[in-house]
Write a structure and sequence with these properties.
Length: 181
């Protein structure tokens, strides 16, 4: 599980590290948030309407799901099951509450928290990437304070001060924890 506040650079680091790992893949979550430029259906997310998301919740399709900002996000059971069948390593990119519920149910899951060097840098990145409107950024920053205060719950903390360095560290943690488990 790879967690950390919005703007910490989880997505960037995962994109960097995933091709270096053999037999690992990233679970594609479902969300109700609008697709950003450059994203594709079924690649970054399965993009669902609120209605479809709620229906799939009631049908038990999610391992966990949360509200984050103004939208819903959830880990699909089908993604995890598909992966268990092949025995590959599954990476989940997930916020704090989701990580907490997965941790309860999958005790062998390794959890990694990605954090920015400091709060100002996080703010700068979130505003700079220009993917959310100001109200949404405000919600994400509020949530970020809570997430940063919970970093110690995670097995590992990676400070994303420099993408190359942080990606190397993340890769090492994943490889080492696979050896251990
Ligand atoms: P974003 O809108 O920036 O893609 O994602 C917002 C937050 O939702 C990020 O912290 C991301 O890690 C988290 N997230 C993405 N997919 C899931 C999921 O399936 N479950 C949970 N709990 N959080 C998710």
């Amino acid at each position: 599980m790879i967690s950390g506040p919005s703007g910490a650079g989880k997505g960037t680091l995962i994109k960097e590290v995933l091709p270096r790992l053999r037999d690992a893949e990233l679970a594609v979550s479902a969300t109700t948030r609008p697709m950003r430029a450059g994203e594709a259906e079924g690649r970054e997310y399965f993009f669902l309407s609120e209605e479809d998301f709620a229906r799939r919740v009631s049908e038990g399709d999610f391992l966990e799901h949360v509200r984050y900002g103004s939208y819903s996000y959830g880990t699909l059971r089908s993604e995890v099951e598909k992966n268990l069948a092949t025995g590959r390593t599954l990476l989940l990119e997930i916020e704090l509450e989701g990580a907490r519920s997965v941790r309860k149910n999958a005790r062998d899951a390794v959890s990694i928290f990605i954090r920015p060097p400091d709060f100002e840098e996080l703010k700068r990145r979130l505003v700079g990437r220009d993917t959310e409107d100001p109200a949404e950024i405000e919600k994400r920053l509020e949530r970020a304070r809570e997430e940063l205060a919970s970093a110690d719950e995670f097995d590992y903390i990676v400070v994303n001060d420099n993408v190359d360095r942080a990606a190397d560290e993340l890769e090492r943690i994943i490889i080492d924890s696979l050896k251990g488990g």
